[in-house]
Design brief:
This protein is mostly helical and about 190 residues long. Helix content is about 70%, strand content about 0%. It has 12 helices and no strands. Helix 1 packs across helix 4. This is TetR/AcrR family transcriptional regulator. InterPro entries: Homeodomain-like_sf, HTH-type_TetR-like_transc_reg, HTH_TetR, Tet_transcr_reg_TetR-rel_C_sf, TetR_C. It comes from Streptacidiphilus alkalitolerans.
Length: about 190
Amino acid sequence: MAERRRGAALEQALLDAAWAELTDHGYARFTMDAVVKRAGTSPPVLYRRWSDRDSLVRATVAHVLRENVLDLPDTGSLREDVLTLLREISATRLQLVTVMSVNLASYYQETGTRPGDLFDPSTTGRKEAVDLLFDRAVDRGEVAPEVLTERIKSLPFDLLRHEFLTTFAPVPDHVLEEIVDTIFLPLLR
């Protein structure tokens, strides 16, 4: 007989099952019943936590993003920190980004939300991580803090995501270097 899951272990199993359903079938075919079946539990267990599939999707995405935060590089230079982080994302997060963008397209359409609404970096700890990377650069005197708007700080990562979604492949190193050296760093001067 399987051990009964409770608390955090049960919630983890439910969110993992929901993520697997989203990955395998997309939002269009995502159902609460399928999550219940995949998690090996009962509907009341799921509905006690999330009353509908929208709230379950939001919780699942936040969970997956929190679970997939990368370690921040600290190379001693902003260029190398950003480039190292882009390389790591390119090497390890292609599936995550494409699933979140492509498999959730019908979610955005049905709920009237945008990807930015679902991927709120402040919910997942990503904003604090990226802010730390830029705070280090300010402390080293590499960049003036007033230049670092939220849009500029997100630019290299937005361009990486664009590459993922137009190629569905890891981004070649020369493209990452072009993003950093030709587009991003000149904006900081």
